[in-house]
Specification:
This protein is mostly helical. Helix content is about 60%, strand content about 0%. The longest helix has 24 residues, at about 30-55.
Length: about 150
């Protein structure tokens, strides 16, 4: 059994967005009870949300707001760009901007995932390098000719 410092955990979280209710919760439960309830809730609900994202089609995914939705939409956009490039002579470099044009996800989220997710970085790098595509490839002369892809 792990010995947790419940007071430390709650003090660390207090003041962070989404955790403003901790002082009120402490009036009704001990720090240990609060942390244990949170863990129980996560264990019970997170697998359910993950399966919702896994089983979703593109149209339903746009309305879903659970964790993992944006990553799946971004992966679908990357896949659509790869499939387009594989079947067309006029290829597009996979960039944050081109992914945004395809999936419309939040630009900050796209940037975070494309900069920090090892799987996404590897897929994009491999594809762009194998086709010798650079961001300059999507230059202004071609503006308006972006393929009509959407996920």
């Amino acid at each position: 059994m792990i010995n947790l410092d419940y007071d430390f955990i709650l003090n660390h979280l207090s003041g962070k967005p989404g955790f403003e209710g901790i002082p009120e919760a402490l009036k009704h439960a001990t720090p240990q009870e609060i942390v244990e309830r949170g863990i129980r809730y996560a264990v019970k609900t997170l697998p359910k949300y993950a399966s919702q994202v896994d089983d979703c089609d593109a149209a339903s995914l746009k309305r879903l707001t659970v964790k993992g939705t944006a990553r799946k939409r971004i992966m679908m956009a990357i896949k659509a760009l790869i499939e387009y490039n594989e079947s067309h002579k006029d290829k597009w470099c996979i960039t944050k901007g081109s992914v945004f044009k395809v999936c419309g996800s939040n630009r900050v989220t796209i940037a975070e995932l494309m900069d920090n997710d090892a799987e996404i970085k590897a897929i994009v790098s491999f594809h762009n390098e194998s086709h010798k595509l650079t961001p300059e490839h999507n230059n202004k002369k071609r503006k308006g000719t972006f393929p009509s892809l959407s996920v």
